[in-house]
Amino acid sequence: MTATKTIQRWARPAQILMILAICVVLVTICQLIVFQFTWEYTRRTFLESQPQNPVVSEADRAMKEISDSRKEFLPDGTVLLVTDTMEPDLLTRAKTIRVADANNHTLYEGSDKNPYSFISWSDEGPRYFETATSLTEVEGYYGGNADFSRMLCVRTLGPDLRWSGTWVYDLALGAFVGYNLDGRVTGYLGAQGLCLRKQEIQPFEKGLGLRRAKKAGAVNLTAVWISAHSAYLIDFEAIKVRQVFHSDDDRMRFVQISHWDDPNTGLYLPILAISTERGRGTIYIPDPERFIQIHVPPEWYWAVAATQSGVYLSRHRIVGYPQSHDHRAVSQWLLQNRYRPKQHISQLMKVQDDGDLRLISSFEWTQPGQVATSTVAWEQLPRWINHAFAVVSPLPFKYASIWGEDMYQTQSSKYLRHLVKPLFLLEIHGPSNLVITFVLVSLAFLHAWPRRTGWGWFVFWVILVLAFNLAGLLTYLAMNHTPVIRCSACGRRRGLLRPDCHACHSPLPVPQPRPTDLVFPAV
Amino acid sequence: MKFLALVKKEFRECLPWMCLAFIIFTGFGALLLRGKVLYEEGRRKEIWREEQVVPWCTSPISDIGPLLLLTALGLGLVMAIRQFYVPAFDKTWAFTLHRPIRLITAVHAKLFVAILGLTLSVGLPWTGMFLYAAIPGRFMDPVLPKVFWEGWLMVGLGFILYLGTAVSSLCQARWYTTKVCGLAFAAGIIFLAMAESPFPAPLVLTAIGLVVLGIQVYALMQSKEF
Which domain holds residue B103? Predict the structure, then answer.
């Protein structure tokens, strides 16, 4: 009987939790649907109000051409402006290229086999685990398809290019486990390299990304294991691990790779570049092996190239762009400056063997402010509309949205990212939200007062509506649709869940007994 | 004995659906598995191009995942409708409850048969398929043990839908009010559990769903409102 009573005691909280969760989701979905319709309408109105064919001066057109072109450097420091054009014909898809000097005077126009040899830079490439954006996503259910979790694995090929085995990353061990084609474990690959026993494994730091860097001529992959503070070069051909970067007090910003599998190996050397959030840079050239430590202030984005004549560094920045890589500061800056002209600086530098940077060439240009297009951003929507739709959101979501935005930026699973995104689309405005909350709490109060059965539940319902706003009120109404009658003694409204009146404590009226007419008289 | 009699009654009523689920899952699952084995035999002889070497891959038996999930959800839904909705529809609750038993015994019998049904029709065939696939050398990529537990978690999600349907069936509110809340909550739990979270998260969500819905099934049965 104790178990039965316990279940009955917990049944109501369980029901409240269930209905509250559904109400919160429903209210949010309704808000977003109406909000989306309003934004669509506002966007069209905004676009229609823009001049259809704005008059653009020759100088503005030239400035835009310069801004839209790629800025390329020759090793001697000459800056070239390059514009690629793809023919609209899908069958031929011919590509033409225009090369201009720094003053936008055309030097060459024709096929993409142009006579200039720009420096070919390293690039960041796909930072994450190919299609999965993080290790967590690899390890979770393959969302949407109901597939089982995926494996982070590297297949190895034999000299005959036939499959010879697989290295599977084991999240619990923090290392790769090697399997041969018979399914037997052949070894473990951890931070210290290959080992044959599980006890000897030194795990990798938790991975943030895996970049492919296959060496020219090699059959199997060389991969860069990227974690928050370290980078490892894992050679699956020679089964070797090399730590190329480690910092206890600084976090990785980007890892760039280039020319590892380049057929023109005579021109460029394979290179690996690592940048940290504080501006520390490490350049690793494997053949002959050397490390160059550089320092580039964190507001610059940079790339490197190693040629036989030396190591070059190209860096670029937008004047005023936030130095910190905090996504909130960057979003705010972009929001404020979207329609303003921006000043860009690109520089070519030579990297000395001791890590010093020598400026060779510099180029500055102005990017015109963005013109309103069909993809008008959310910020076109007047703030009061956003606040108006958010007035029925729970006030604690104001703080949850801050958490949600952080989670959106860092969350690995794209499904979860989509789930938390609505949390911060609607901006909760504290004062207006409080007013609506007060109105809804008053409604709940007036509704609950005659129906109250005890002070505990009464206070609970008021707090629930206070915390969850409209969703709380809907939950309250779903759980308390008790009919009310007028008390026969005092005339006040009273609920039927309680045997006595909450005001005068008189019991429910007892029906007057009537004479029975179904009893037959005794004979 | 009374409990066993109830179990027999529930089992008899659900048996056709359990057999259907077993046939669908085992039949299609075996076909998928066989196809995968044949495909792998061809791949062993294949000459690889370097771009085929990708740093992630699905489990060799991942094709069975959607079939397993859909079968478990379908069976959970149908068994709950048969056990909780049909008696209210054709007014046969009295046939179950006229016995000198406690209501909680009737709930236990229904839940026992639901678990038994999911285990026999979906869980055991899944275990067999996993054991077949996990034999070393069967596939070139290893079949990891965690996939086995992920499969059983999908079976557990079938039980969540069973409980959600049971709550909706027993609830006496109107269909457009809180009657659908049980089903909606179960659907939400299933959606969140499959949303690419790493393994402990789906497990915790399933446990929350089990507790919230399970308590309500017990309480609604004891309220005798149906």
Answer: 2-223
